[in-house]
Amino acid sequence: MGSLPSFPWLQRRPAAPWCRTALGRDPSLQEAVNQVFEQLRGAGEADLALVFASASYASDLPRLLPLLQQKLSAGHWLGCVGGGVVGTDPAGVPHEIEHQPALAVTLLRLPGARLRPFAIDTTALPDLDGPAEPWRERVGAELEEGQSMLLLLDPTGTAINDLISGLDYAYPNITKVGGIAGPHSAAHGSLLFGSGAPGDSDPADTVRNGAVGCVIEGAWRLDPLVAQGCRPIGPVLEVEQAQRNVVIEVSCGSTRNSPVAALQSILTDLTPAEREQVKHSLFLGVGRSDFSLPSADLTPVADAPGSFLVRNLIGVDPRNGAVAVGERMRVGQKVQFQLRDADASRDESRQLLAGQARRRSEPLAAFLFACLGRGEGLYGQADGDVSLCREVFGTVPIAGLFCNGEIGPVGGTTHLHGYTASWGFLVPNDPPGGSAAPL
Asked: H or E element: which one contains 5?
């Protein structure tokens, strides 16, 4: 028998990636879900569904995934409650919705991706001084090149910093992006975690405490961007004396002083408006050993966002001019005072987003985990961060939430932040020597 003829037009074409988003804004959870159904009508089977709900729905949270699974199909479901919700409306316009009911659902089809969802009990974590394997067993994924991780934490969870450190230990040099869910008064947790279809798991088990997340492998990854919203004032200083989180003495060149005395000398060069800002918007940027910083007697320009990890100043000792910082300090670290304001945040975000655009064309989706202290409270108007993103990526769907703490990398290490916008851009993962997955 001769060979059968070949018909190229009959050959199966590779599945195309897609992202579908919906935003429900009714005070009734059922009606908000109905709005989501209407907007996602005809959506195919997704690999991953992300669900972000405002705290006004917290009492009904155990009903949420079962309701959504009645008409939407996804292999994995992940989400949480937030202090506010970021979502994209039916017209394709993203919004930051604060102090109002909102439900944002994102469906993702990711050909070539391997998704490893996980849930971790944070009350019994492996030893940080032990081997990495117990951490990887909790996550259910081996360490591989090109991985990234979406991570959501319950605000009542214990050992949050230990968890982040342990995941960095087990999965070094991979992107981890996410945040701490919003608090609420209901008796259950704040996290959502489910499998593909109704009946696959107990509805009550879809709401979790601790931590949930998803390791993304294969053809797709998350590119991180952490905007801390601050600008430096004064020179870079070096810590000369420190105890735990208290900085006692700093130096600038050959001059040694208390941190308060160093700040007082900086104030003389500030404008009246900046001196007023110091009263309520002063932070300390803390350098890391792997950062590339200028010498201590130079003031760096603000063209290298992320050179410092911005931390709260939580106290002053008037007796010796020492300051307490929201970070453990050590002798030899570089530090610099920082001011947080809307203009600094816009400038930093635009610079970081432009850098992301140079590295990568428009992503399939963007996920924003923003501090509750941002939004209208920082910018004086709605949609501040998502509008900046749309200036660079004109049509990208955006989803996320306002967090009690944001997770993202600075200086190659994952940190828990405050007042920050931590972004994750979903982009093709270039294989070694190969080409990216098609968009």
From this structure: none
Given the structure tokens 């979790």, which residue do they identify? 208
Contact criterion met (CB below 8 Å) for 282 and 266: no
Residues 275, 266: Cα–Cα separation, whole Å: 10
The predicted model scores a pTM of 0.88
Angle at 370 between CA 427 and CA 145, to 5 degrees: 30
Burial (CB count within 10 angstroms: exposed 0-12, middle 13-18, buried 19+), residue 432: exposed
pLDDT in tens, 202-217: 555 789 999 999 999 9
Q: Which residues of 87-111 are buried (b: 16+ CB within 10 A; e: fewer)?
A: bbbeeeebbbbbeebbbbbbbbbbe
Strands (E), 268-420: 282-286, 309-317, 322-325, 334-340, 365-371, 398-403, 406-410, 413-417
Which of 223, 240, 236 minimizes the C-alpha distance to 175?
Answer: 223
State how far the Cα of 340 lies from the Cα of 349, in Å rounded to an integer: 13
Using only the alpha carbons of the chain, give its radius of gyration: 23
Task: Find the mean pLDDT for residues 57-61.
Answer: 93
Which helix (H) or strand (E) segment holds residue 378: the answer is helix 376-379
pLDDT in tens, 251-296: 999 899 999 999 999 999 999 989 998 988 899 999 865 444 433 3
Q: How far apart are CA 313 and CA 325, in angstroms?
A: 5
